[in-house]
Amino acid sequence: MTAHNHKLIAAAWLAALAAIPAYAADAPAADDVTIVTATRTSTSIDQVASSVTVITAKQLEQTKQSFVVEALRLVPGLFINESGSRGGHADIYMRGGASGATLVLIDGVSVNDPSNPDHSYDITNITVDNVDRIEVLRGSQSTLYGSDAMAGVINIITKRGHGKPTSHVTLGGGRYGTAEGRLDSSGSSKAWQYSASASQFTTAGFPLGELQPGNTHNDGYRNTTVSARLDGKLSDSLRLGLTGRYINGRGNYPDFPMDHAVDNGIHRYDSEQFTGRAEARWQPLGGKWEHIFGVSSNTINRDYIDQITGSPEALSNYNGRTAKFDWQGNYAAAKNNTLTVGIERLRDDSHYASPYGGSSGQHIYTAGYYAQDQFQLAPRWVSTFGVRVDDHETFGTKATYRATSAYTCQHSGTRLKGTYATGFKAPSLFELYDPTYGYAKLQPETSTTYDIGIEQPLANDHAALGVTYFHNNYSNLIGFSFANNPNGGYYNVASAETHGVEVTASIRPAGRLRADLSYTYTHTQDANGKPLPRRPTMLYTGAVNYAASGKLNLNLTGQYVGNRIDTGTFPAATLPNYALFNFAATYKVSPTYRAFVRVDNLLDKKYNEVYSYATARQSLFGGVTVTL
């Protein structure tokens, strides 16, 4: 894309900023949001120095998208790389970090897959069922969360029931033979709160092998999800909580030989995941001390089936499980000082068997010990400092630390913030113990990250602007080398650097209108000065929602993705820039019935997120929600 076109896009974003406030001047103040991921305690977002984005259930409802991956595409500094159609493998690149450097949580439970070679998580199968909010925390978070959080954390939090019992049924469908149905129910009594959801999504899909001549085989997908949460108050000082989510995703996928995807209809996969957590919160001494005891488990089982006509099935199975016990103590040392300490003990298991690559089964234990102090140096000056030590079964101990600070000017409301942190990522079980490529003496990958930013409220809190500079250094990265093994293997051989700028704008000129816009510039390079693959230098996102009346709601989202290199093909390919827009409208027909319509890829753009994998063209979907 030319510099002239970049200027046109930037001008359009700035024009939107200038035009929106003209609608009205009586909007409410900015949302009062409380988050838990940044400090592991309930903290007002105004008291957090980290770069954080919160996607609420209301925003998820307004876009009418069915999958979390679509909501994450609008987060500054975060790029999603999905292999073609719905159900295709999705990688997360946060601030240019590798896909395995982002920790994904569901209700605080790590869902990163121990059976994946890089211990990453494929987020493609998570639906928005029963999701209350998504907290996206950018920058290294190893001090509170240990391994896998070098680039950041995504925490998907389940709804808590409230009010009288209520149920909803949603039915919908659209292009590519897509159909979905969902049942939600929630409510509360004096002592108990519950929420539950069950859904199924199916689509016939379309041919993914874009460069394959005469390809007519559709790559379909089916998703079944069940989610539930139960909270109970046994006394003024004791509370219990249970959460669970079951996900089953089934689909077809093409081969990817040396030059492009080939779709012959013989490959399919079946992925099952169960995530659960039980916890007790005890607050003795009038609530000055809070103890949180938790037990959690995440199991992912993946089957890949190849079947050529006239031949028996070839089954490859991958099974990963993480089981963890944790204790966290929060002590209110003073009115403006909270000390948090914690202990975690977890076990990772990985088992795989394949007719193409043998079999292996391994497990490993890790213990983590952390402490963090949240304190105020002045009425408008909030800081944290934390340290952590992880004891890993193979490489021993690794210490990390993190410091943050934020100051708000009294009269202007200008907010200055900054963070500095170290991080690490433990080698995966595959990298350590695979019979062919593993190396048991691998050391952890490490990182040093910092960011500094400024936020400015405008027009009596009807708008806000923010600018953040970030810088990440990654060392001791695990790469594939032939230096010590003629067949190739894993070694600590690589390093990388990423830095850039995130610019955000939030505008609420009227109670009916909300706009959120962002621009992210990301520079990446490896030890040889070459750009890291599949990370766009330029990323623009935007979301505008307008409640036209008490019955009609309109929503428009957009994303511009700049050029990037894809090294999944030989030779490496340059993927061109593209811009996508999605539109959704909801109309309240009556207190019982609510109809909706959604148009994805509004301008019918042809584009690729992965080289040679086709993506969906303009697609119309519609449906209805019935309140029971």
Question: Can you describe this structure?
Answer:
A hairpin with a 2-residue loop joins strand 17 and strand 18. The chain has a 22-stranded antiparallel beta barrel. Strands 3-8-9-6-7 form a 5-stranded mixed beta sheet. The chain has 628 residues and is mainly beta. 42% of the residues are buried. 6% of the residues lie in helices and 57% in strands.
Lay out the secondary structure.
Blueprint: H1 3-19, E1 34-35, E2 43-44, E3 51-56, H2 57-63, H3 68-72, E4 78-82, E5 90-94, E6 102-106, E7 109-110, E8 131-138, H4 142-145, E9 152-158, E10 166-174, E11 178-188, E12 192-206, E13 219-233, E14 238-252, E15 267-282, E16 289-306, E17 314-334, E18 337-354, E19 358-378, E20 381-392, E21 396-408, E22 415-425, H5 429-433, E23 445-458, E24 463-481, E25 489-510, E26 513-526, E27 538-547, E28 552-561, E29 564-566, E30 573-575, E31 578-588, E32 593-600, E33 619-627
Parallel strand pairs: 6-9
Antiparallel strand pairs: 1-2, 3-8, 4-5, 6-7, 8-9, 10-11, 10-33, 11-12, 12-13, 13-14, 14-15, 15-16, 16-17, 17-18, 18-19, 19-20, 20-21, 21-22, 22-23, 23-24, 24-25, 25-26, 26-27, 27-28, 28-31, 29-30, 31-32, 32-33
Calculate Rg over CA atoms: 24 Å
Would you tell me the structural class of the helices and strands?
Answer: mainly beta
Distance between the termini: 51 Å
Helix content: under 10%
Q: Mean pLDDT, as a whole number?
A: 90
* Fraction of residues in β-strands: over 45%
Spans of at least 5 consecutive residues with low confidence: 1-30
Q: What would you call the shape?
A: globular
Total number of helical segments? 5
The largest pleated sheet is described as: 22 strands, antiparallel, barrel
Instruction: State the total count of DSSP E strands.
Output: 33
